[in-house]
Structures are given as C-alpha cells and as structure tokens.
Amino acid sequence: NFNESIHEREVKFTNKRNPRLEIVVTKSPDGRITGIENETGIRFPFSVGQLLQRNVEVWACNNNFLMDGKDTCPEKKIFGVKVSDVPSGHEWRSIYPNKF
Questions:
Q1: What HEC string does the chain produce?
Q2: What is the pLDDT of residues 34-57, one digit of tens each?
Q3: What are phi and psi of 50, to 5 degrees?
Q4: Contact (Cβ atoms closer than 8 angstroms) between residue 53 and residue 74
Q5: What whole-number percentage of the chain has pLDDT above 70?
Q6: CB contact burial 25-60 (16+ within 10 A = b; e otherwise)
Q7: Has this prediction a pTM greater than 0.85?
C-alpha cells in the first residue's frame, strides 16, 4: 500500500474569490481519481474511479476555481485577438480602455 501512495498526485482546486474554499483530488499515475476531499459544499461533478481529464479544467474555469494555482480559463480575446497580443501603445487600448 505504501508503494501505491508515493505515485499518487494531488490536484488542488482553490476558489479564486475565497481561497479557503478548497477541493483536493488525489489521482493515480494512470489519471484515475482515488480520493476527493471536498468540504466546500460546492458540487464537484467528478467521482472516485473516474479519469481526471481536461474537462475538469473547464469545470474549474466555469466555477471560479484555480487548478494547482493556475487559471484554467482560456485567455480573453477581443475581436479574435488575445489581449496579451495587443501592444501597450495600440489604438485599441485607448479606444476600448475597459476591454484591456
């Protein structure tokens, strides 16, 4: 049993607005969920035995959770262009200041 546990990995989901809200998921090397600690009262739509796949990133983004401290939401785009790709002096930034 000890050998199994050293290969398990924890994934922490922390609420963006309230960092005390935390869901900790333990997964096996093949990506299966082996444990879920969720005392937040927030519905976590995944269960033990399921594979932890990319759709968990969508859930984290939609529910304002960070996954291991990272924001999983895709970068915001304005007119199909990533905000980070628009240079600081660009006219869009002065025309649409609240978008950047």
A1: CHHHHHHCEEEEEEECCCCCCEEEEEECCCCEEEEEEECCCCCCCCCCCCECCCHHHHHHHHCCEEECCEECCCCCEECCEEHHHCCCCCHHHHHCHHHC
A2: 999 999 989 999 999 999 999 999
A3: -80, 155
A4: no
A5: 94
A6: bbbbeeeebeeeeeeeeeebebeeeeebeeebbebb
A7: no
